[in-house]
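Appendix C: a fully annotated inverse folding record. The material below is reproduced so that readers can follow the format used throughout the book. The structure is listed first as tokens, followed by the designed sequence.
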């Protein structure tokens, strides 16, 4: 299929909730799966991931679109996410970062 013939369904939720939604919804389970090929490590340090390969919804969407449409540039969205994370971090007192599992911001 050509990229313009595809529809990308993305579940926007926490990792735990999105996994649960997939497991309890038969219609979602029947959709074909799309695997990302060698995505970079997440830059989204605001939430703690259960595993190294978990990405934010925005990251996963951008990397999927980039994989489907390699001639298009989705880096402005990733750059905007970087800016959001930096701005978010600026509002968190240093002593609270460890408590929130946001050590590396």
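Designed amino acids, in order:
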């Amino acid at each position: 299929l050509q990229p313009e013939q595809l529809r990308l369904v993305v579940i926007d939720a926490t990792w735990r909730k999105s996994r649960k939604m997939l497991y309890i919804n038969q219609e979602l389970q029947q959709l074909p799966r799309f695997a990302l090929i060698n995505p970079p490590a997440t830059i989204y340090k605001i939430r703690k991931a259960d595993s190294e390969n978990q990405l934010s919804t925005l990251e996963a969407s951008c990397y999927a679109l980039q994989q489907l449409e390699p001639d298009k540039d989705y880096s402005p969205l990733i750059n905007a996410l970087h800016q959001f994370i930096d701005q978010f971090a600026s509002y968190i007192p240093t002593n609270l970062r460890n408590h929130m599992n946001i050590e590396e911001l």
